[in-house]
Design goal:
This protein has 138 residues and is α/β, with parallel strands linked by helices. It has five helices and seven strands.
Amino acid sequence: MIDVVGPHDQDHGRAAGCGLNPDVRGVVIVGSWARGAAQMDSDVDIVVLTDNPRHAEAGVWTGLLGGEVVRLADWGPLREVRVRRPSGLEVEMGVVPVSWADTDPVDSGTSRVISDRHRAVHDPAGVLARLSAACEHQ
């Protein structure tokens, strides 16, 4: 099952700072929080679609979320910036180019992430909605 937040819920995107950044083309929650299986010690996994390399810089996320960077890693096109907030909550920001959401064809890694349940919280141009639909038909 896939949840897509509608236009009436775009405040979620603004809460994550996306409403102020028109170069952010999509934000999607994946992993245990999207599946409804999160535990008290679960991290929050968020994928940000943008072609602006500045969003892959650790300082962007420590400035927005507070806390410290605990891991930086590259996983194919995804740049992981994992931040531990002062509360101990870890937030994994996966910054990807907009092409990560291409639907003709859908990349197998992208399909695995999206098919394992997701929740789009910022999708002004419908990029994530098209990706979601393409993954449902695979």
